[in-house]
Amino acid sequence: MITEALQERETYLNASYGIKSWLLTKDHKRIALLYLHTITFFFFLGGIFATLIRLELLTPKGTLVSADTYSKLFTLHGVIMVFFFLIPSIPATLGNFFLPMMIGAKDLAFPRINLLSWYLLVIGGCFALYAMLAGGVDTGWTFYVPYSSNYSNTYVIATGLGIFIAGFSSILTGLNFIVTVHRMRAPGMTWFRLPLFVWSNYATALIQVLGTPVIAITLVLLICERTLHIGIFDPSRGGDPVLFQHLFWFYSHPAVYIMVLPGLGVISELVSVFAKKPVFGYKVVAFSSVAIAVLGFLVWGHHMFVSGQSVYAGLVFSFLSYFVAIPSAIKVFNWTATLHGGSISYATPMLYAFGFIGLFTVGGLTGLFVACLGVDVHVHDTYFVIAHFHYIMVGGTIMAYLGGLHYWWPKMSGRMYPEGWAKLSALVIYLGFNLTFFPQFILGYLGMPRRYWNYPEEFQVLHVMSTAGASVLAVGYLMPLIYFMWSLRYGPIAGPNPWGATGLEWRTSSPPPAHNFDETPVVTTEAYDYAALAAMEEAKVG
Amino acid sequence: MDSHIELPELQEQFETPEQQREVSTLGMWIFLVTEIMFFGGLFMAYTIYRRAFAGAFGLASNTMDVWLGAANTAVLICSSFTMVLAVRAAKIGSRKALIVFLILTILFGSVFLGIKAFEWNTKFVEHHVPGPTFHLEGASAGDQGPAQIFFSLYFTMTGLHALHMIIGEGLMLFLLWEAYAGRYSPSYYTPVDIGGLYWHFVDIIWIFLFPLLYLIARHQH
Fold first, then answer.
1. What is the distance in angstroms between the Cα of B33 and the nearest Cα belonging to chain A?
2. How many other CB atoms sit within 10 Å of the CB of residue B2?
3. Which of A140, B77, B105, B179 has the fewest beta carbons closer than 10 A?
4. What are the phi and psi torsion angles at A166 (to 5°)?
5. Is A21 in CB contact (< 8 Å) with chain B?
6. Residue B220: which pLDDT band, with cuts at 50, 70 and 90?
7. What is the extent of the structural domain holding B46?
């Protein structure tokens, strides 16, 4: 017995056993895994709605579902994917797991609040699931009044409450990250030695903390308007429905950066480690994350060019929106510069990073189209917009999330995934994604409006292409689900640092011990200092 | 005395008690920032409608009982004062003074909530609750709608503020319980400190609500 216990190294996975040791855990790594399971569930649930949407759109006339059901499908797809998958995705799983390790901390600053935030997400999710099972909600994920407050006869309140509660989950995660980065860094881990993934999660946390309370109060007002008819958004009493849109987008535009900024951080890590070079212009890339967070709060009006805000407001919002392109372009250029002259490895995470850079660039450039006042009047509320934000959220965030998941999987599980299958799935996802969403740019440009269940026959070819792409994409997403589970048992043992990466998370064993490090690491080098890492390895061997 | 005797309160993720205290305080400050944004949405709605319907808002505001509002302001400022004294008592290790000042803070908070409840009741009696029976004397037919928006904002803002007061009272009861059990000492009183931060924040919200809701149109009297 005793020798057996000695042979089995203690990790965060076997430090304690039983369902209680998971549901009451304060270990950020275990909480990250709880999140991983939860958001994987929501991802595939949202995916089912997407599948039904694409199937309905195979034919010009309604064949599969009724118009009402279709409205509920796209609403639930949006609500589940945005609030219960994308917003928690990278910060709550990869960030939760690795942010403390990357700065050399034993845990987040508030482990119990971290667990609470997972429970809040689950409780919020239960409200959303209740709304779904009880009959759904058909307002679109944007909940525009007066439809959502006075006319829709669906489960707006339950869904709103679900988002309200999940919002506090997001706020508490952000709060935890900010305090952790400020106060829990290991000796020698200065601000400009932080890995860029930490910087981008820090910038994200700023938005979570400053933006999310505004959607919370907006939902409170919406629920009051719907139940008590308080009149704040009701034109018959002088209330202004456009005020709802201002409040909604004040959060929901920055929320786009909550979704994509952590992804930008993942890509900075991947590009550096698989080119074996420090990130070009480290400080500029770090500050560009903060710049995106700040600018994100100044551009919400570009969602409202045709909503009746003043022309001058439109001009200013359009002008400011272009500024977001600057820090975004800085990142893309600096990643490219990092690759230049690097010894590039084409491992799976790097394939995802390449996919991300291409798709994020397309999504970003088409963002300039929709930020432009004149062009937006033409493409507003069309499939052009749908394609644009899916290039950012699916082509960007999910590619980065999967890239990060492959990259850190050996650390989380202690085992490697099957490289061949993983490369294949990266390729399938990339091709499937483009086949799904590129035709939608053309559809939107030709005038296909969003949120319609039927369409003129001349659009059918493009819709069939899109649906075909969605099936390919679905296969691509199912593959990692299967081989990740397979690898837990059969994957090759990974070792502490399979990629030769410099981050502190790679200096401890895989999977890490419950307190991350056997002794608190002391940081003496800049981030991404591969020469110092090589010297250290040599010294160990010698 | 070895300072390590105080260490049972040190949670495992921290290296030193100072780090633990700094983390808690910073966490509370950031939480208060989120609260500012939360109330900020309402303040923005108020600003927009106040500008659009200055006349109706003035008329509606004049129905408020300014003396009750002023009394409540005084009560809350007193409660903040006793809260400061409670934190000081914890800092110098006077358990008895801490208990007394926490009780006083709770009492002032309760008086505030009592007066607020009375005021809310008055609104129901006077048909100033938005809805089909709403009527504001002296306001034209066109001003009845915007006046309802004023009262909607009044109920939402003071209601959310009162909810924060109730949560604050809960926090104070918790602190009182812990203080009674002798958990706080000059080397560990962080909960009293950050509980105080929260309490002052809720007071400050009221300091903004009072002029916006009660005083904006006084000169028209």
1. 7
2. 6
3. B77
4. -60, -30
5. no
6. low
7. 16-220
Is the pLDDT reported for residue B134 higher than 80? Answer: yes
Q: What is the mean pLDDT of chain A?
A: 95
Asked whether residue B35 carries a pLDDT value surpassing 80, the answer given is yes
H-helix segments, A380-418? 383-392, 399-413
pLDDT digits (tens, 9 = 90+) for B68-84: 999 999 999 999 999 99
As a whole number of angstroms, the distance between CA B6 and CA A419 comes to 52
Q: Which of A266, A319, A254, A263 is nearest to A292 (CA)?
A: A254
* Residue A62 contacts residue A56 (beta carbons within 8 Å): yes
Strands (E), A17-167: none
CA B148 to chain A, closest CA, distance in angstroms equals 7
Which of A183, A217, A218 comes nearest B23 by C-beta? A183
In 3D space, the residue among A203, A216, A213 whose CA is nearest the CA of residue A95 turns out to be A203
User: Residue B184 domain-assigned?
Assistant: yes
User: Which residues are CB-neighbours of A483 under 8 A, at least 6 positions away?
Assistant: A417, A418, A421, A422, A425
SS3 state of residue B64: coil
Q: For residue A241, what is the DSSP state?
A: H
Which segments in chain A show pLDDT lower than 70?
1-7, 542
Question: Does B113 reside within a domain?
Answer: yes
- In terms of Cβ atoms closer than 10 Å to its own Cβ (0-12, 13-18, 19+), residue B4 is exposed
- ipTM reported for the complex surpasses 0.90: yes
Q: Is the pLDDT of residue B207 over 80?
A: yes
- Examine residue B108 and state whether it is found in any structural domain, yes or no: yes
What is the pLDDT, as a whole number, of residue A284?
Answer: 97
Neighbouring C-alpha atoms within 13 Å toward the C-beta of A62:
10
* B8 belongs to a structural domain: no
Q: Would the pLDDT of B9 be above 80?
A: no
Contact, A456 vs A443, CB < 8 A?
no
Of B11, B131, B149, the CB nearest to A239: B149
Which residue among B35, B41, B148 sits closest to A218, beta carbon to beta carbon? Answer: B41
| Backbone angles phi and psi of A450, in degrees to 5 | -75, 160
| Domain harbouring B76, CATH code | 1.20.120.80
* Cβ-nearest to A209 among B12, B34, B45: B34
- Find out whether the peptide bond into B8 is cis, omega within 30 degrees of 0: no
Instruction: Identify residues of B whose CB sits under 8 angstroms from chain A CBs.
Output: 11-13, 15, 19, 22-23, 26-27, 30-31, 33-35, 37-42, 44-45, 48-49, 52-53, 56, 130-131, 144-146, 148-149, 152-153, 155-156, 160
- Region of B137 please: left (phi>0), alpha (psi -120 to 50) or beta: beta
**What one-character-per-residue DSSP string does A503-525 give?**
SGGGGS-SSPPTTS-SS-----S
SS (H, E, C) A281-298: CHHHHHHHHHHHHHHHHH
- C-alpha B15: how far from chain center: 34
User: Tell me, what's the pLDDT at B10?
Assistant: 82
Picking from A506, A518, A362, the residue whose alpha carbon sits closest to that of residue A441 is: A362
Q: How many CB atoms lie within 10 A of CB A541?
A: 6
Q: Decide if B45 and A107 are in contact by the 8 Å CB cutoff.
A: no
* Residue B11 pLDDT greater than 90, yes or no: no
Q: Is the pLDDT of residue B180 over 70?
A: yes
Contact assignment for B26 to A520 by CB distance below 8 Å:
no
Residue A327 contacts residue A291 (beta carbons within 8 Å):
yes
**pLDDT on residue B1:** 37
In sequence order, the 6+-apart residues with CB closer than 8 A to the CB of B85 are B97, B101
Collect all residues of chain A within an 8 Å Cβ-Cβ radius of residue B205.
none
Domains parsed from chain A with CATH numbers: 30-541 (1.20.210.10)
